[in-house]
Design a protein that fits this description.
The protein has 334 residues and is α/β, with parallel strands linked by helices. It has 3 domains: 5-31; 41-136 and 262-329, D-Maltodextrin-Binding Protein, domain 2; 141-252, D-Maltodextrin-Binding Protein, domain 2 (3-Layer(aba) Sandwich), CATH 3.40.190.10. The chain is 46% helix and 18% strand. A 6-stranded mixed beta sheet has the order 2-1-3-10-4-11, with helices on both faces. A 3-stranded antiparallel beta sheet has the order 8-5-9, sandwiched between helices. Strand 6, helix 7 and strand 7 form a beta-alpha-beta unit.
Length: 334
């Protein structure tokens, strides 16, 4: 805490207790006043992926409710590319006043840090975590014409066709890309990777039969699974998805295999704690309301709605865990 010269002079004249009270008032009252006036202008909510994916669904859920609560527009700004690092860097370099926010995930905050050697931001230093909103199951899905229906069938089919089976993901360095790389490594397969700039475009091409196999977040894939336009082969996380209880995990066929995918809201580093707390309180409040929770769960999400401190701890832990895995998978940016 920084104290002015006038406060130090005052401290000599009216005692230590009064000095401490005056110092605390000087430090706290301006922040409180700023919190009361925040937000003072439209909020930009950056999605580091193309339209149509799970991050957009979260942004479109959060945006209107923040706007209604605070009387300021919330503009969703898509900035896809480079494994989510382009949009993520926009927020890392933004003014830390709470008016630019990020939908951040394990992909652009953790995995990308191991994939891109000259990444222009530090996931621990350059962001102020607000709340870890949801865990999003990842699924391995296929076009109905693709012959295998289970993980074991897929392994046998691919081993008989080394280097010929194509799988798509939501981008180089995404959690979905890592899911494919881990499958290759764990099962000893040779697959051909086709990266997209988000879950929306990838699902569209899968439905159209342009790619046979896709690792993707459950949210953009679920309507097409339910309609039969694509089929779910397996869940990629540590447990089955609640909305697809009959779909086994990859780990049930390949023990030890799992990729869990979370997404949350972050502000630029050095954003005042009072602003972060205000954002957390409002977002967590409406995410936990029955209608929003149901909407997210129906889309395949598991609602988390953590504190800023819990989210910061998750990011630190995941960075430590995934660094070695990404390096061993030798994922290289295009």
């Amino acid at each position: 805490m920084l104290f002015s010269a006038s406060l130090f002079k005052a401290g000599r004249s009216f005692g230590s207790r009064q000095f401490v009270i005056a110092a605390l008032a000087a430090a706290v009252f301006p922040a409180t006043a700023y919190t009361q006036t925040y937000p003072e202008k439209p909020i930009r909510l950056v999605v580091a992926a193309a339209p149509g994916g799970a991050s957009e669904l979260l942004a479109r859920t959060i945006g209107p409710r923040l706007s209604a609560a605070w009387g300021q527009p919330v503009v969703v700004d898509h900035r896809p590319g480079a494994g989510g690092t382009i949009g993520t860097n926009v927020v890392a370099k933004a003014r830390p006043d709470g008016h630019t926010l990020l939908i951040g995930s394990i992909g652009n905050l953790v995995i990308a840090s191991g994939v891109y050697p000259n990444i222009p931001y530090d996931a621990n230093r350059d962001f102020a975590p607000v709340t870890n909103l949801v865990n999003q199951p990842i699924v391995l899905v296929a076009h109905p014409s693709f012959e295998p229906n289970t993980v074991r069938e897929l392994i046998a089919y691919t081993r008989a066709r080394p280097g010929q089976v194509v799988y798509a993901s939501t981008g180089i360095g995404s959690a979905m890309h890592l899911g494919g790389e881990l499958l290759q490594k764990t099962a000893g397969l040779q697959l051909v990777h086709v990266p997209y700039k988000g879950g929306g475009p990838a699902v569209v091409d899968l439905v159209g039969g342009h790619v046979p196999l896709l690792f993707v977040g459950l949210a953009p894939a679920l309507p097409h699974i339910r309609s039969g336009r694509i089929k779910a082969i397996a869940a990629v996380g540590s447990r089955r998805a609640a909305v697809l209880p009959d779909t086994p995990t990859v780990g049930e066929a390949l023990p030890g295999y799992k990729v869990d995918y979370w997404s949350g809201v972050l502000a630029p580093g050095q954003t005042p704690t009072a602003i972060v707390s205000k954002l957390n309180g409002e977002i967590v409040r409406f995410v936990r309301t029955p209608d929003v929770r149901k909407r997210l769960e129906d889309a395949g999400f598991e609602v988390l709605a953590t504190t800023p401190q819990q989210f910061a701890g998750t990011i630190r832990e995941e960075l430590a865990r995934w660094g070695g895995i990404v390096r061993s998978a030798a994922i290289k940016p295009e």
